[in-house]
Design goal:
Helix 7 (about 160-170) packs across helix 8 (about 200-205), helix 8 runs antiparallel to helix 9 and helix 9 (about 215-235) crosses helix 12. This protein has helices spanning about 5-25, 25-35, 55-65, 100-110, 130, 140-145, 160-170, 200-205, 215-235, 235-240, 240-255, 265-275, 305-320, 330-335, and strands at about 45-50, 70-75, 90, 120-125, 155, 170-175, 180, 185-190, 190-195, 255-260, 285, 290-295, 300-305, 325. About 45% of the residues lie in helices and about 20% in strands. The strands form six sheets. It has a four-stranded parallel sheet, with helices on both faces. It has a two-stranded antiparallel sheet with strand order 5-10. The protein starts with a helix and ends with a helix. The mean pLDDT is about 85. The protein is α/β, with parallel strands linked by helices and about 325 residues long. It has 14 helices and 14 strands.
Length: about 325
């Protein structure tokens, strides 16, 4: 092949690469997509989340301008490059969600509330969106209805934040009796017990597709992770090491979102309760249900709870009359 032909091939290859890169740049891709949309008959609201959230929101605003009546942008700390019209811009934690993630999510949900069929929501998602867009799924009133108990305080444990806690502890011991290679959670596991780091503990607590028990199995492994953290955190080895205790405490506080009425004493009681629950005289498990594959039109697959048994369970837990052990329908099926 002569040099002229080589130059032509190289030029063509460079043109192909350049065109591919230009076609994949968010700004151009978003503006092309928006140009194809028919005019909106009502309000246009923008929600842009992810590490590229600011960039994608800027591209949309450049294309539509004042046609965007309201908007919320949620991106990683340090990724905002300034104001975008009248859009509300939030920076939050990634890969570990924090209280700003929750506040930003609440703002986004408020922005899209009250819309009708004439309105349009532009929802732009880029990498990291799942960590930046966080909100507890079950409202407090619904939890009180399920348990039959008045709930005075709420603590939301972010499993992404537990990476820091586990690493601060120097790893925790976890057990699972199956070999796993799950690309969705990133869990690669050889059957047995292992001392794992934070990222492995996170994958351990997220995996569900390779577990025959699905979400129920995942919930059990999440409890195991919490118990392992509490056990090692309360150990003599940890408590007598001031530097380690300080690191663990800082990591733990950044991994938990609590209600505005929570106090130091309520958090201490919660920690002691976790410790008690993880001991031989503790109580752990899940709620009771009657149908784990209950289908609701417009919602999808759900779990139909056993209201009577759950009210009794939480009443006994509240009064301290329930015997130690594992509770819930899943525990009954395994016995």
């Amino acid at each position: 092949m002569d040099s002229k032909t080589m130059q032509i091939l190289r030029r063509d290859a460079e043109d192909i690469c350049r065109s591919a890169i230009e076609a994949s740049v968010p700004d151009a891709a978003i503006q092309r997509a928006l140009a194809q949309l028919p005019p909106c008959q009502g309000r246009t609201v923008l929600v842009s989340i992810g590490k590229a959230g600011w960039q994608t929101a800027k591209a949309a605003y450049d294309a539509l301008g004042s046609a965007i009546e309201q908007g919320v942008v949620v991106t990683k700390y340090g990724h905002s490059q300034g104001p975008i019209g009248g859009l509300s811009i939030y920076e939050a934690g990634h890969p570990v969600p924090d209280e700003h993630s929750v506040r930003a999510t609440e703002a986004a949900l408020a922005a899209v509330s009250g819309l009708c069929a004439r309105d349009r929501v532009l929802f732009l998602v880029s990498g990291g969106g799942s960590a930046l867009f966080e909100r507890p799924l079950v409202p407090l009133a619904e939890l009180e209805d399920i348990t039959g108990q008045k709930i005075n305080h709420v603590a939301m444990v972010r499993f992404g934040g537990l990476v820091k806690v586990v690493d601060a502890l120097g790893g925790v011991d976890l057990c699972y009796d199956q070999n796993v290679n799950d690309p969705y959670s990133g869990m690669n596991w050889t059957a047995g017990c292992h001392t794992v780091d934070g990222n492995t503990a996170l994958a351990f607590s997220r995996m569900r597709y390779a577990d025959v028990q699905g979400d129920f199995g995942r919930a059990a492994r999440q409890r195991q992770v919490i118990n392992a953290i509490v056990k090692k955190g309360a150990s003599k080895q940890t408590l007598t090491n001031f530097n380690k205790t300080k690191k663990v405490a800082a990591a733990a506080l950044s991994s938990v979102t609590v209600d505005e009425k929570a106090s130091t004493s309520s958090l201490l009681r919660m920690a002691l309760a976790f410790k008690s629950a993880s001991g031989k005289d503790g109580i752990s498990g899940s709620v009771y249900w009657t149908d784990p594959d209950y289908y609701v039109d417009g919602v999808g697959s759900c779990v139909l709870l056993n209201d009577a048994k759950n009210i009794q369970l939480f009443s006994e837990l509240s009064h301290g009359t329930h015997s130690a052990g594992t509770v819930g329908t899943l525990a009954e099926q395994q016995n």
